[in-house]
Amino acid sequence: MRNYKTVRYKLSKKQTNSNGFTLIELLVVIAIIGILSSTILASLNTARTKASIARAQSDLKQIRLAIEFLYDDTSLYPSKQTLIPCTQNSEVYLNTNAAGIQSTDGGFPGWNGPYMSTVPLDPWGTNYFYDPDYICGAATLGCNGHISSGVDMRVIQSFGPDKSQSYGDGDDIVLVLCVN
Rounded distance, CA 70 to CA 73, Å? Predict the structure, then answer.
């Protein structure tokens, strides 16, 4: 009889040992997966932002070439001005006829364009523009050490992720054409 009880005890012990997971183990695994996924999503957002900035910088370089072709043909910049004198508040959106990049309004004698088939929107959906009196700041991406102390620069610009112009302290992305 003793052997029977021992065998019975062993059987019931085997029956209580299941191959499943406990609730604590499942919660720990779910917590680890949550932490890993949040880390990956944060990295993807950072990579997406860097890619958008790189695309904007690439677009600005292409637009600069179109502006150089426009200047070679007409001796004018998109604001219909020569290099000197610098005029205040003559910004021009580069996708308009007044800019002379993809079409002209007749204000560019010697125009031999189009210099770009279409001027793209920046990665955040706003138009690039030409600003002949931009003042760079320390936080402006693209000023490359041209931090101004009252010196105007000719730039082509994207408003950046916040879609608003912020002279010197925002997330604007610029490409300096020249310093006046």
Answer: 5
Give the H/E segment covering residue 5.
helix 2-16
| Domain boundaries along the sequence of the chain | 22-179
- The correct CATH number of 22-179 out of 3.30.390.30, 2.70.98.90, 3.30.700.10, 3.90.1150.10 is 3.30.700.10
CA distance 142 to 86: 21
Say whether pTM exceeds 0.90.
no
Whether 11 shows a pLDDT value over 60: the answer reads no
For residues 176 and 170, is the Cβ–Cβ distance under 8 A? no
- Label residue 80 exposed, middle or buried (CB < 10 Å: 0-12, 13-18, 19+): middle
